[in-house]
Design goal:
Blueprint: E1 8-9, E2 12-15, E3 18-20, E4 25-26, E5 31-32, E6 37-38, E7 45-47, E8 50-51, E9 63-64, E10 69-71, E11 77-81, E12 87-92, H1 102-105, E13 106-112, E14 125-127, E15 136-142, E16 152-160, E17 173-174, E18 176-177, E19 181-183, E20 196-197, E21 201-206, E22 211-218, H2 222-225, E23 228-233, E24 242-251, E25 254-259, E26 269-275, E27 282-290, E28 297-301, E29 307-312, E30 322-327, E31 341-342, E32 364-367, E33 377-381, E34 384-385, H3 399-403, H4 431-440, E35 446-450, E36 456-459, H5 462-469, E37 473-474, E38 478-482, E39 501-509, E40 513-520, E41 540-547, H6 550-553, E42 563-566, E43 572-575, H7 580-583, E44 589-591
Parallel strand pairs: 11-18, 21-27, 28-41
Antiparallel strand pairs: 1-6, 2-3, 4-5, 7-10, 8-9, 11-12, 12-15, 13-16, 14-15, 16-17, 16-19, 20-22, 22-25, 23-24, 23-26, 24-25, 26-27, 28-43, 29-39, 30-40, 31-39, 32-33, 33-38, 34-37, 35-36, 35-38, 40-41, 42-43, 42-44
């Protein structure tokens, strides 16, 4: 497994077994990963390092490195009680000094992020100056004027003025924390007056789908908001770069507007503005727009029973798309994973769950045509190769046979020759010729074809087992192609992920309750980012998980008149119109929600 991102800096993990960056230097006897830092905890902590030579996508590919990493306890530690006003800060450590008061001896600051070289967070100021203390002191943190820009992760840093009497401290050190310090609400939200909207709201919407945008308010009055408007703009100015404007009204204490964004709208973060019947537009939050994942999905789990998530959509990518399960009261994009979530065999501290067999999505069928060769129908699995021993290469096409000596004719295809030895099974042929040779060779199941060079390997039926189990090797320089007669195995849903469904398993949740499922959309990444790195990447709320007995399910209006399908790896996926899944070839069984938990088959919801 991989280290939790709250304690290890310099490594980011998109799942339990895929982390970046790669090694900065690699030699036969050692490998170096630079700029990795482990944060000291309040107590001594032991870490184990595991190494993968690549490709890296499963636990079995990692080998424990001999020895352990022992990180000593931090010199100072603290807790921050954010339920009080102001916040109560308790600092522990070797604080005794000859100075007459605390402020004369020590300097403290909160920074937004992890590095103590960052400037002090201006709206997390620390106050208090006790005259007597030994190894513990209580101070206050005044979060006055917090805005949505202040939401995030904070680190406390300390500097001894006995070491440096200058006004600027060059040697701040990080203060360990009993729990991560995160600001998730703003001061403006905590001082709402009647008939106003909450600010800094975070919403999700799917492009091309009409959605009820629901804005939370405090004692909203129909007279004020009865003919209000909600607007989506592409930046912070409510009057410019308008995407859509819709009429809103008060419904069950919330301001609700039916909004549909065109399907070709760029998926990214937008600003949400609202106005009363007579007022002007003002910013009330942000909207994360996605075009690929379907929102409003619902799942039902049995308490403490192993289950799964099936997330549906279009153009889904099991290699990069990830989900995060948070508590119902938490906010997608701000919160870490729920402590109630148990992913057997994986590190529950990780911000992202690994998609089930995510390294091998179900292949899609494509037709290849060329004037000179009838190649028939082949199935291409991109960026994969079969790691079983290839079939012997026909000598006439062998790279070693025809290219060891200079061969410059066009039909030689010696650009695919990579210093192959006489026992190499590589063929130097064009893709068309490779397919023809495979079709004419008895026992040829498929081939590993180089994506840019005229080079391929023929394979037997043994590779079919790797296709079935999702264990083909990963290599971006090769594609695996399957012959026509092998397509029969692709008509069966074998529990993997596909471009229309991501499967996340195994997953269990302790106890009952409701939970949110947050989605990390690769289309929201900046150009320099390749994987889901932090909780902030999981900003899109996909739906809810209900973990409960049937009596509680019946109390949920949204689950009374919907169909539920049994998921491949356990649990139920519920919604309207799920019967169409069967016609699309997805292996599901429509069930009555109560019967899945052992209640009478005649009881309908």
């Amino acid at each position: 497994g991989a280290p939790g991102t709250d304690s290890v800096l310099g490594l980011t993990c998109s799942n339990g077994f895929a982390c970046s960056p790669s090694a900065t230097a690699a030699f036969e006897s050692n490998t170096t990963f630079s700029n990795v830092e482990i944060i000291n905890a309040p107590q001594e902590t032991t870490y184990k390092a595991c190494y993968c030579a690549g490709p890296c996508h499963s636990a079995w590919q990692y080998t424990p490195v001999p020895g352990v990493i022992r990180v000593p306890a931090a010199n100072f530690s603290h807790t921050l009680d954010m339920t009080t006003d102001p916040y109560r800060l308790t600092l522990s450590g070797p604080l005794e000094t000859t100075r007459t008061n605390f402020a004369a001896a020590w300097r403290l600051k909160y920074v937004k992020g992890f590095q103590c070289t960052l400037p002090e967070a201006p709206r997390m100021s620390i106050t208090g100056n006790p005259a007597s203390f030994t190894d513990e002191v209580e101070l206050q943190v005044d979060p006055a004027g917090l805005t949505s820009a202040d939401i995030g992760r904070y680190t406390l840093c300390i500097c001894s003025q006995e070491i440096d009497q200058s006004n600027s401290c060059p040697n701040y050190e990080r203060v360990a924390e009993s729990a991560p310090v995160r600001v998730v609400r703003t001061e403006a939200d905590s001082q709402l007056t009647a008939d106003t909207l909450v600010t800094s709201q975070r919403l999700s919407m799917q492009a091309g789908v009409a959605t009820d945008v629901k804005l939370v308010g405090h004692q909203l009055q129909s007279a004020t908001w009865g003919n209000a408007q909600v607007r989506l703009v592409s930046f912070l100015d409510c009057g410019a770069n308008i995407v859509v404007t819709a009429t809103a009204s008060v419904d069950e204490g919330m301001l609700v507007a039916r909004v549909e964004v065109p399907g070709d709208t760029t998926p990214k973060q937008y600003t949400v503005c609202a106005k009363t019947t007579t007022g002007a537009f003002s910013i009330v939050g942000d909207m994360w727009l996605t075009r690929r994942v379907r929102l409003g999905q619902t799942w039902v789990f049995h308490p403490d029973r192993e289950s799964s998530l099936e997330v549906t959509g279009t153009e889904l990518d099991s290699l990069t798309d990830r989900v995060l399960v948070v508590d119902c009261s938490d906010t997608c994009g701000l919160a870490g994973p729920s402590m109630a979530v148990n992913t057997p065999g994986k590190d529950t501290r990780l911000p992202a769950m690994q998609s089930f067999r995510s390294y091998s999505p179900l292949p899609s069928v494509g037709t290849y045509e060329e004037d000179t060769v009838e190649r028939g129908v082949y199935t291409t699995i991109a960026d994969r190769y079969c790691h079983a021993a290839p079939l012997a290469a026909p000598e006439a096409y062998s790279c070693a046979s025809k290219c060891r000596e200079p061969c410059i004719a066009e039909e030689c295809f010696c650009a695919g020759y990579l210093s192959d030895t006489v026992d190499s099974t590589a063929l130097c042929l064009s893709p068309t010729a490779c397919m023809r040779v495979c079709s004419e060779t008895e026992g040829c199941y498929g081939m590993s074809m180089h994506s840019t060079l005229p080079r391929c390997f023929l394979h037997s039926e043994e590779c079919g087992q790797q296709v079935d189990s999702g264990t083909l090797g990963i290599n971006v320089e090769y594609d695996f192609l399957i012959r026509k007669q092998a397509l029969r195995r692709l008509d069966i849903d074998r529990g993997g992920s596909s471009p229309t469904m991501l499967r996340f398993a195994p997953l269990a949740i302790t106890g009952g309750g409701r939970f949110k499922v947050c989605f990390c959309d690769k289309e929201q990444f900046p150009s320099s980012q390749l994987v889901c790195e932090t909780e902030g990447d999981f900003a899109i709320e996909v739906g809810e998980i209900f973990v409960s007995g049937v009596s509680c399910l019946l109390a949920q209006p949204k689950l009374r008149r919907v169909s539920c399908v049994e998921q491949y790896h356990g649990g139920l996926r519920c919604g309207e119109g799920l019967g169409s899944d069967v016609s699309r070839g997805i292996a599901t069984r429509i069930v009555d929600t109560p019967s899945a938990f052992g209640v009478s088959e005649n009881l309908m919801v």
